[in-house]
Amino acid sequence: MMKNISKWIVLIISWFTLSPLMVYLGGRWKIGNKYVRMVGMLLSPLFLALYLLLFTIVCFEDDRSYFQNRGRIERITEVRIPKFKVIEYHEGQRGFNGDFNDWFVFEFKATPPHELFDEIDKLIKTGNTSWHKEGNEYIFDKTWGNGLPAPKGEHENEDRMFSITITRGEKQGTIRHGMW
To answer: What local confidence, expressed as pLDDT, does residue 7 receive?
Structure first.
């Protein structure tokens, strides 16, 4: 009788600390059936903490590279963007609800061709774009979600903001992005 009680105590302690050990020892000592031990392991404090950690990681996944994808930028801005690399990343504060506002400086592999800026000028003339021009700076600024329409390929239920600034004759530009 005392031996059985000590086995149960060991199983309970292992359930709190290292639940796979509880499954192993319960099987070896033939205490409870396999399915009860597996459910016990899945509901153990160790695994519940692991589930919470995984849930937190998924909910607050790193969004830093979302707008470093050239294809995504081209789809949103409706302009072919030359190849670039990120040279400086600035992470803004994160809100408790996932809001953030980051920005990064990027550098084109070569100075963007004049055709790129001519294409943007044509879009600006149509009046049906989020591009605008200030001197030699070309700025695309778009916010969507919460009732504002999303660009093609993006979801309206994601409250996002995106802005890209490029300057005629310069290799560097900036991208600001975030969730609001």
So the answer is: 81
